[in-house]
Amino acid sequence: MDRRKVLRSLQICYQTGMKHSEILSQQRKMWDHCEDSTNWDVSHLGGPLRFENSLCFWIQADKKLLHDRIDKRVDDMVEKGLRLELNNYFDTLKEKNDELDYSRGILQSIGFKEFSAYLQLPKSERHSKLDNALFNVGIDILKLATRQYSKKQVQWINQRFLQPKRRQVPPIYGLDGNLTDAESWDINITRPAETLLENYLQGNFEHPIFAEKRVQTIEDREDDLIVRTCEICEGRAFVGIRQWEAHLVGRRHKKMKNRNMNRELRSFKFNSDPQNPSVEHTSVSTSEAQTRLSSHHLYLQSRE
Q1: What pLDDT does 218 receive?
Q2: What average pLDDT is seen over the chain?
Q3: Please, what sign has the CA dihedral across residues 155, 159, 164, 169?
Q4: Residues near 192 by beta carbon (within 8 Å), at least 6 away in sequence
């Protein structure tokens, strides 16, 4: 159960005397008969912004830098006593309830569920080789889960704010967070954010920083109606950058791409002894093919 959504629905019911679902249904019906696409009072995905004068700052960083920071953050947590904190907290929970449900509450949150195998070991096993191994596995899983969560956050921002949807959203301004030393932070984040906010409050929207820092939405792109064809997926056509980018990250495209690559590797025949061309060529598995391909390339390089 999503507590926040339930509270919001109860608040709406208390303030309006109507169910949340009834209000949303009315808005959708009004949208279907509305010719003005800028009338956010009748958007099929909700009403206007709760706070009319809003803007958002998005501190952005390159993917690799972000992943490195996530890994370092987890390492810092370990150095500052993550293991002891986990043990103490788990022991406290165990004292209150011996039958713990690892699919609910704090036990399924990031930073805890990754260590479930480690935590379920008896106290007598703590600091044993198995205990240490499971804890290290938990660290690796925690880093992976946090990186995946950061990806979902970026996807949520893109879907919620940047993709063309029939709903009102506040403007998003990107700030460069690749450098985190004090001077770079002041130059790339603090000062631009202050300049944006000051001019926004003064109504000076002609200031060049608004165009410079505004995160581009998909519907703003000039090539949004170009037709693109995916040869990997047997010539499937996609209209617009939105459809194309969604296709490239989709499961079907990745599956077809991997299938084609594996088919090429399986069909490729290598000489088992590159120095002896008389040896018969045979078909090999994908993993063996990759190994032989590397060896073949090394042999060719040695002959140059």
Answers
A1: 63
A2: 78
A3: negative
A4: 173, 175, 209, 213
